[in-house]
Structure formats: C-alpha cells, structure tokens
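Changelog note: in this version the structure field was regenerated for every chain. One regenerated record is shown below for reference.
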Amino acid sequence: MKAFLILEDGNVFTGTSIGSTREVISEIVFNTSMTGYLEVLTDPSYAGQAVVMTYPLIGNYGITPDQESKRPWPDGYIVRELSRMPSNFRCEGTIQDYLVKYDIPGVAGIDTRALTKILREKGTMNGMITTNENYNLDEIIPRLKEYNTGNVVDKVTCDKERVLKGTGKKVALLDLGAKNNIAQSLNKRGCEVTIYPAHTSAETILASNPDGIMLSNGPGDPKECTEIIKEIKKLYDSDTPIFAICLGHQLMALATGADTHKMKYGHRGGNHPVKDLKTNRVYISSQNHGYVVDTETLDPAVAKPAFVNVNDGTNEGLEYVGKNIFTVQFHPEACPGPQDSSYLFDRFIEMMGGKQ
C-alpha cells in the first residue's frame, strides 16, 4: 500500500506503508544513529514526534529485549529501507509487526537523505503520514501549521511509585519520561532507586529523605511543564544533591530563572561531541532534544555553563553555584552508547557522600 509524508512546506514524499495505516499529524525529526533503532523507538522523549532514521537499513536484527521503556512512543516512523527478514539469535519479531501492534504508522522507501536535508535547511516542521491517495494539500497544510505537541510528559510518565532495591545510596528519580537505563545505571552502582511519577510533589519526595534526586529526560517543550517546574524549584531549595538529564536539565534551568528556546532542528543521534569546560576534554555523546537552555539568561550567581556542544556551541550542561547540583543536556546512560560520559553517575554518587 502506498503511503505519503506531507510536510507543512508542501513537500510530499511517496513510499510504502509500514505499521498502522491510520493517519497522523506530528512533528517530523531525524535521528542520525547508525544502530540502536529499538532504543530510539522506546525512548519516551520521542512522544509527539515522528522519527526519520537517516541510517538507510532499519530492522535487520528485528525486535530484541533492548528496550528503554514498556512500549514505543513516536507518532510515526520513517525509513529508507525496512528489513522484513531480521536475523539475530535474540530476535523476537519484526519492526513491521511491532509497529502494527502499537498502532504506529510509518513510511518506507522514501529518500530519507533528501528529507533530512530539507529539515536541516528549513528547520523541524510538522507533517502528516497518510495512506489516502486523494489527499488535499490546501486542506492539510493549514492543519499542519496549527499542530502543537502540547504537554506530552503526562503521556509518558509512570502511573505509580516503584522501587529498585539496592544497598547503597537512596535516590529519588522523578520520571519525566525516563529511559530504563537511568535507573539501571544507578542501581548497578548499588543505589536504591525510587521512581516517582512526574507530578509527585516535592514534599513527598523529600519526606522519603533521599540521599540524592535524579531528574530524568522526557519529551516536549519544557515550558509546558509549569506545575513540575514549581516543584523542582522546591527541590532546588532543599539542598539535596541533584543530577538532571535532558528535559530535567532544562526544567531546573527554568526553575531557577533561566530561559530555553527551540532549536532549528535539534540534536538527535549517537555521535555528538561535548566539551567539559573544566577539563577541556571532549566526549562523544548520545542526544535527543529540540530545546536548549539559553546561557545568556543564566544568573552567574546561580549557575554556570559546564559543558558545551563542539559542533554549534550550544549549552550541554550546567553547574549550580553553592549547590550540589549539576545537569547535562546529553545522555550519560546511553544504550547502545556511546558510554564516554557514564562517569557522571559516579560523580553523582560522590556528591551524595558515596564512593565510586
């Protein structure tokens, strides 16, 4: 069956339908990772977006246990070529069946390189995936321009509190759309990790007397999370050690008076270089974000830049003055990698008074 990707600038790509055949409007973003497509699909940060994979062959090792959450989250999936006969000793099924199971529409067989060049040149834009060959551009394009992802954190956060037992430091993890490997990275270092839904009050978290607080990654515009930002400000004021990743990093900045803005096309992939401003050492990182903290709005008495993106100079991390708080835009827990920056979890444990 034919499928069409219609962009809000009027460009139309024709390919083959994969997954669900339902029609969807979403923000279209691209990911440059050469492996780890399953971790991309199950990253809650992609809620409200349709993902274009720039690597041309997707699905060659099928569906394996390497999943970052309970289900896939993108609104749509766009690939150059879909492998319909995966080969791997851990394979449990195909991408096609997986997308059908979770009602996610997709398109295969389009020129993803040309599509990515458009998104890089014109910026991230909204689009529609449809199997309707009689589509009307004059009707569709105004709908695309009006689309907004809204507050998608509520969609991806956990339903209730749960605990990963450990014998070391007690960490409270605020789940804003957390990837599994954040909790696992702490747990394998001995931490007992209590995972809380995104709208848990600061009072509830602090009443458990955690040794440290972890703010997770998550989807959407950070400014949509107004109530969560208020609670994070209370956590900031508590003087409890805090480590934040991605959306958590942005929300802490907003909670302390800084601003964020949307990037032209964001950073999504597994090969982004970031520089530690303290040591001048460069790490290769995994990233997935479309918003960034505006360092010009930082109060130097509150926070100072700690990491910077080598490619475009955007902020990749903050260190908070007089506080045991540091935050990063990239993913030190990255699966399948790179794992250059996983040492940051050890730094967090040291902040809590533990040993590496």
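Spot check on this record: Residues 153-351 form a domain with the Rossmann fold fold (CATH 3.40.50.880). The CA atoms of residues 215 and 244 lie 4 Å apart.
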